[in-house]
Specification:
CATH architecture: Up-down Bundle
Mean pLDDT: 86
Number of strands: 0
Order of helices and strands: HHHHHHHH
Radius of gyration: 17 Å
Structural class: mainly alpha
Number of helices: 8
CATH topology: Four Helix Bundle (Hemerythrin (Met), subunit A)
CATH superfamily: CDP-alcohol phosphotransferase transmembrane (TM) domain
Shape: globular
CATH class: Mainly Alpha
Largest sheet: none
Helix content: over 70%
Strand content: under 5%
Distance between the termini: 33 Å
């Protein structure tokens, strides 16, 4: 268990903490206790988790500590984090349920291809560049949406930047999913 893998596990541990502040205590009950500040704290936690994603990947490459665990768990940690936040934002009426369903469907397809690759030849397929760019846009959309009511923040309120980022992330999600399937079609042929 190297440092990048520990950072990945740390990101997973941040998810319930994020949910407490995003939804209230217990989840969905008592949200008025935190009010808008809960969303700001949730945004800060999400930003720490997003930064940890960049840090663990950088450290793994820099110190040649890329492991199958990391290749497998890092994208799963990202998916759980991003999808948890997006589902919170769907529940708040901020994100489109259709867009989030597209994102979830892509993740199921990519996960299925990964499982087929592992079962056929033991290969763990890492995320491609388009998948990484997609994740960055998804994370930015979530951050902007969580901070949409932040006082004195023209950037977060203007033009509903979170909507633009969200729909760009949906487009990138579709593209990266198609690219992933095409690149790994040999595993789908059995």
């Amino acid at each position: 268990m190297n440092l990048p893998n520990k950072i990945t596990l740390f990101r997973i541990c941040l998810i319930p903490v994020f949910l407490v502040f995003a939804l209230g205590l217990p989840f969905g009950v008592g949200q008025e206790f935190f009010g808008k500040f809960g969303s700001y704290i949730a945004a800060a936690i999400f930003i720490v988790a997003a930064i940890s994603d960049a840090v663990d990947g950088h450290l793994a490459r820099k110190h040649n500590q890329i492991t199958n665990f990391g290749k497998f768990m890092d994208p799963i940690a990202d998916k759980i984090l991003v999808l948890s936040a997006m589902l919170v934002l769907v529940g708040q009426g901020v994100f489109s349920v259709v867009g989030v369903i597209i994102i979830i469907a892509r993740e199921f397809v990519v996960s299925a291809v990964r499982m087929m690759a592992v079962s056929s030849d033991g290969k763990v397929i890492g995320a491609g560049m388009s998948g990484k760019v997609k994740t960055v846009f998804q994370m930015l959309a979530v951050i902007f949406a969580l901070l949409r009511d932040f006082p004195f923040s023209f950037v977060f309120k203007s033009f509903h930047m979170y909507d633009i980022l969200f729909w760009l992330s949906v487009i990138l999600t579709i593209y990266s999913g198609l690219e992933y399937v095409v690149r790994n079609v040999k595993y789908l042929r059995g």
